[in-house]
Amino acid sequence: MEKIIPIVIVSVLLIIILIGIIGFFLFFNIGLFEILGVEYESWTSIFIFFGLSFAADAVVNIAVTFCKFRYYHSTGRTVKKRHAFILRILLDFAAIHTIDEMMTSVHFSFLSKIGFVLVISLIDASISSAKRRVEKARDE
């Protein structure tokens, strides 16, 4: 009984944290959709959109990593970062456009696609730069 109570408490806390994280991402993206004027039919279409966008993001990450190893080997560090950022934006735009064309229940205008991709790319860049700063501080 003494071992069960801490396990249950930790499990409940992990579930609450997981629900909080999912809720934050969901309401952040829904709010972003409202600001950009994205039209959607139901919550199910939003969940399908997020699932497809996670899969497309994995493909984009693989493509950017491949390009870093093949193309950026001979370029400088700042040029590599700029090219990778631009390539990521272009591939993310292509992924969002493809998902928008496949799904009839979610409709992006051209400007909302650009805005969505730029916001997501800037958030991704700021998170990755914060991770680099933390790792650099740990190394010192």
UniProtKB/TrEMBL annotation:
InterPro entries: YrvL. Signal peptide: none annotated. The keyword Membrane applies. The chain crosses the membrane at residues 7-30, 42-64, 85-104, 110-130. The keyword Transmembrane helix applies. Keywords: Membrane, Transmembrane, Transmembrane helix. This is Regulatory protein YrvL.
